Write a sequence for this structure.
């Protein structure tokens, strides 16, 4: 048997990097209008949200956030919210925090708008699911800086590349957990709806989505957390907000500035996590509990259900 | 033509079901096809007919294809081949819209694990079929309440399913199936998730409701006792094929093969078989004008202690017993009309044999099977009763 000359294998050299760069350039030249459109829409959306968040005075905004915390989780968390955001205000980082919140909200909005329907489709088709899965793995494991690089190339500097990079990085859980949630709905229950002659859309909106809600909301929660983790990286692309604070702290070796920015990110993360976690709880149970508690707590119960309608979809 | 007709129905699971169909039709076994091709022949050439208002039970073990069959009737599972027609409409040929209409209005379903919508109240669950049809609020509420009353859950409309016990949840499932007033009710092992006492209670409820509502029911079970108790007719299913269709007593009496016999052995025959099935013509009856000597001679000859005496219409007048006949002869009576006594027990045809066992030994004559005018239709001698109850049951036919 001839010995296989392992040492002599020559690997062909592939210039994948160059090809990709060429592809990106090609896309940029030929689909420029599309990128400009996205830049326009996303940029405007972010501006509006920023405007809304920064329109009230800092005091009023802290009050609003506190109220949200109070309604979502009770007085302890309300108190925490009040103290934590007051701390941010005292550090003079409130405006940056709101800018970051705006960026997070836009990115989450886009991620969920794309990710949830994709998850629904994946739950219906094993083939699509099989195709999507490796793509999602890729999206989540590729170093996030690369997205930023690409995003800057397509969308130039500013908030938009930060948002778009965050969307790519943070969307997978929205898809995955929507798919999971819908696949986990008891088959017989879906059959029951079909057996009574429900249309596919009635089965989806009346049965599957409501029952998959805890899982979907867990996905949204993860999307928010992942987006926040991108915020600092987005700061490199000139997205402003806390990212910029942290980045300039790092660049100038200003420990104080860096830690202040970091602390504000943590506070925002805790706030968003705890508030959104509430909507993962099965709606009917909480609705019932708040109904039972309505004698002493009716204001909050009402507000809570308003919030739930706004953020979590249908109540029953 | 029957109301619901299923003919030559096949369901093959796998990537290329059509290519396997010929094999299945040729009678190749399920295991063989699965090993050769990786396809599962769930249902193979099933034929049956169900009349309007009939309670039809499909009985089989898990994997026998029974759930697949019932799901093909409303096409939750698409048949690979075959035809299902309901009241002349070919269900297998319907488009989506036609199928939806049939599901909304003519066929409803009750599920093994209840399949209630956990996020809807009991009332909203029951109203589901009506809501899908777009029936207006007032009408929907009325029919929902009616259906809940029927199953004994009036007043529970505002509760949620998880606040109810298993038996109550299946009552909700049943109410949901009844509320649309569909003629056909498909029931997929509806009681097998319930504990035995509740199951019995639900069976009684269903029997009572069926007595009032006369729906056409296709009922799946793996419990032959349940099948015998509920079904007008039973189809015995094995490996996707029907091995026997018949009434409970027919199957008990003549199991088509060993497979059916092995089930039949476990059935409580005394509750399935009735006096009507165990009875025979009395060897001889007498009229009141017969002479005591003649009757006594006959009794002596037959080694009997008594005989039934009937009038011209066949109504039982009484029993001529040997001791009374002897007294009559001694007195010089010319006929037996004055000697009759009420020493007998009469039952109707549909009395289960279980109820006969206790009274069989009490009288000098066999138990009489009578109609509602007390006309003698047959008798059930004790030996015959015991033979019918024994597992072999071979001597039941006469």
């Amino acid at each position: 048997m001839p010995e296989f000359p392992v040492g002599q294998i020559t690997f062909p050299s592939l210039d994948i990097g160059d090809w990709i760069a060429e592809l990106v350039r090609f896309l940029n030249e030929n689909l420029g209008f599309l990128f400009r459109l996205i830049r326009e829409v996303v940029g405007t959306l972010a501006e509006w949200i920023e405007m809304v968040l920064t329109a009230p005075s800092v005091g009023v905004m802290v009050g609003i956030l506190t109220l949200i915390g109070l309604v979502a989780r009770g007085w302890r968390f309300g108190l925490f919210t009040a103290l934590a955001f007051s701390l941010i205000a005292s550090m003079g980082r409130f405006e940056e925090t709101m800018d970051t919140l705006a960026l997070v909200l836009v990115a989450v909005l886009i991620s969920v708008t794309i990710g949830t329907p994709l998850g629904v489709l994946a739950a219906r088709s094993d083939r699509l699911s099989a195709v999507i899965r490796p793509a999602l793995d890729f999206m989540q494991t590729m170093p996030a800086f690369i997205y930023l690089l690409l995003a800057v190339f397509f969308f130039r500097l500013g908030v938009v590349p930060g948002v778009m990079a965050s969307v790519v990085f943070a969307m997978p859980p929205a898809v995955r957990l929507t798919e999971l949630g819908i696949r986990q709905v008891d088959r017989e229950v879906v059959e029951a709806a079909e057996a009574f002659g429900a249309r596919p859309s009635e089965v989806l909106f009346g049965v599957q989505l409501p029952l998959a809600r805890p899982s979907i909301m867990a996905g949204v929660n993860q999307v928010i957390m992942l987006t926040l983790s991108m915020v600092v990286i987005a700061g490199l692309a000139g997205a402003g907000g806390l990212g910029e604070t942290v980045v300039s702290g790092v660049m100038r070796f200003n420990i104080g500035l860096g830690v202040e920015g970091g602390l504000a990110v943590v506070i925002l993360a805790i706030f968003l996590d705890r508030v959104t976690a509430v909507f993962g709880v099965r709606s009917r149970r909480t609705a019932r509990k708040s109904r039972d508690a309505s004698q002493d707590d009716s204001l909050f119960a009402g507000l809570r259900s308003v919030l739930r309608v706004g953020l979590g979809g249908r109540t029953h | 033509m029957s109301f619901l007709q299923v003919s030559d129905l096949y369901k093959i699971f796998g990537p290329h079901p059509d290519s396997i169909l010929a094999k299945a039709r040729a009678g190749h076994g399920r295991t063989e096809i699965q090993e050769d091709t990786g396809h599962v022949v769930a249902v193979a050439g099933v034929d049956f007919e169900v009349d309007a208002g009939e309670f039809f039970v499909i009985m089989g073990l898990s994997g026998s294809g029974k759930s697949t069959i019932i799901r093909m009737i409303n096409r939750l599972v698409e048949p690979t081949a075959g035809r299902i027609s309901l009241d002349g409409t070919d269900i297998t040929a319907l488009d989506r819209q036609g199928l939806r209409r049939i599901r909304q209005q003519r066929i409803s379903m009750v599920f093994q694990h209840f399949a209630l919508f956990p996020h809807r109240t009991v009332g909203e669950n029951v109203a589901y079929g009506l809501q899908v049809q777009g029936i207006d609020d007032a009408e929907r509420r009325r029919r929902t309440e009616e259906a809940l009353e029927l199953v004994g859950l009036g007043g529970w409309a505002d509760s949620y399913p998880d606040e109810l016990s298993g038996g109550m949840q299946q009552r909700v499932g049943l109410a949901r199936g009844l509320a649309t007033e569909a003629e056909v009710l498909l029931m997929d092992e509806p009681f097998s998730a319930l504990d035995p006492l509740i199951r019995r209670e639900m069976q009684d409820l269903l029997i009572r409701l069926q007595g009032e509502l006369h729906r056409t029911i296709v009922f799946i079970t793996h419990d032959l006792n349940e099948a015998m108790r509920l079904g007008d007719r039973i189809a015995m299913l094995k490996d996707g094929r029907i091995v026997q269709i018949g009434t409970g007593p027919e199957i008990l009496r003549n199991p088509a093969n060993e497979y059916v016999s092995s089930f039949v052995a476990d059935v409580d025959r005394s509750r399935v078989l009735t006096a009507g099935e165990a009875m025979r013509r009395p060897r001889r009856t007498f009229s009141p004008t017969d002479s005591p000597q003649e009757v006594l001679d006959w009794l002596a000859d037959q080694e009997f202690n008594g005989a039934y005496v009937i009038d011209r219409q066949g109504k039982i007048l009484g029993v001529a017993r040997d001791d009374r006949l002897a007294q009559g002869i001694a007195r010089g009576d010319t006929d037996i009309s004055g000697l009759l006594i009420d020493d007998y027990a009469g039952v109707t045809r549909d009395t289960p044999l279980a109820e006969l066992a206790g009274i069989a030994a009490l009288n000098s004559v066999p138990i009489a099977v009578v109609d509602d005018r007390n006309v003698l239709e047959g008798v059930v001698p004790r030996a015959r009763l015991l033979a019918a109850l024994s597992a072999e049951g071979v001597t039941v036919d006469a």
Summary: Chain B touches chain A through 30 residues (CB under 8 Å). Chain B has 18 helices and 15 strands.
